[in-house]
Amino acid sequence: MELQSLFRRFDEAILLKRYEENAELREKRDRIVKRLQVNLKTPFEWFNQGSYAMGTGIKPVKDDYDIDIGVAFTIDHAKHDPVEVKRWVYNAVSEHTTRVDWRRPCITVNYMQDGQVIYHVDLAVMAKEKSVWGDETYRLAIGKESSSKDQREWQPDDRKGFMKAVAEKLSGEDAAQFRRVIRYLKRWKDVHFVREGHAAPTGLALTVAANSWFQTNKSGGFLGPAEYDDLAATFSLVRSMRDGFQSVPETGGYVQRLVLKFPKEPHDDVLGKMPSQKMKEFRERLDTLLGWLNDAKREQSSAPLRLAFGGDFPEK
Questions:
Q1: What are 269's strand-pairing partners?
Q2: DSSP-based three-state secondary structure for 114
Q3: How many CB atoms sit inside 10 A of residue 200's CB?
């Protein structure tokens, strides 16, 4: 229970509150939305996406704050070029800050300070339609401004469905433990991986893994409050991730990879872009993390946990 209290303090130290509780993040988001509302001629809806919307956001260690917004137009995707629709959004925000980037999956608005990005807002541009069954479907506009026609596409995208599934997976204190463990692994990732390229598992990948394998770990609760064990819950999830590696074919033979399929459209492998060598390092780091977690349990010490999660984990 002493370690559990340290985990709770650690979570308080790294937790990045949701938009409703974080005035600065909310202000950055709302300024962008206002800019879109003023400059876009075509009606649209917007919605929060990503870790802040799901309550799994953490304070960044090495990177800037990343805000995700979906911008959806009720249009027939077959009648609109995805790059042209992204241009609507780009033109609407291009003068909002000194640096706005056109990326293949989104438009990124950067907030700068002393030449460094301190916040960035990713605008995922989408087409919203009704399916033959009457439910809403979304497609993500993919393509850079200079992309050839074969590099442009409307990719089926059900991030809203995934966020809903995560929100409904558990309830009450069970759900709170689920979100805490995701935040712990995100901080582990920030401490032990470099951001460049596809060397690190993304926050989305860790959330998909938790959605697949997380198991609540608690005791009691019949005659009084349940006692939660975040160390055991984290160990169980990491072990499931490590055990999930499988042999997959690659040029010249087979390699060990962790395949994590997004449970909603587009059903892609969220780790698919990680090179084989980086995947090998990922597996080795999972092994090391399991060792630290096991040492912490055996020794009832915070020292291995500070190795795993960095200096924000309390010593005692």
A1: 261
A2: coil
A3: 20
- Cα–chain center distance at 255: 26
Amino acid at 47: F
Q: Which residue has the tokens 């909002």?
A: 96
C-alpha–C-alpha distance, residues 256 and 249, integer Å: 9
Domain 16-156 has CATH 3.50.50.60: no
At 248, list the tokens. Answer: 């997959």
**CA pair distance 313, 13, nearest whole angstrom:** 8
Q: Where are the CATH 3.30.460.90 domain residues in the chain?
A: 16-156
Q: How far apart are CA 17 and CA 238, in angstroms?
A: 25
Per-residue pLDDT of the chain (316 residues; tens, 9 = 90+): 699 999 999 999 999 887 776 888 889 899 999 999 999 999 999 999 999 889 999 998 877 888 999 999 999 999 999 999 999 999 999 998 889 999 999 999 999 888 888 889 999 999 999 877 778 999 999 999 999 999 999 999 999 999 999 999 999 999 999 999 999 999 999 999 987 778 999 999 999 999 999 999 999 877 778 999 999 999 999 999 999 999 999 888 999 999 999 999 999 999 999 999 999 999 999 999 999 999 999 999 999 999 999 999 999 8
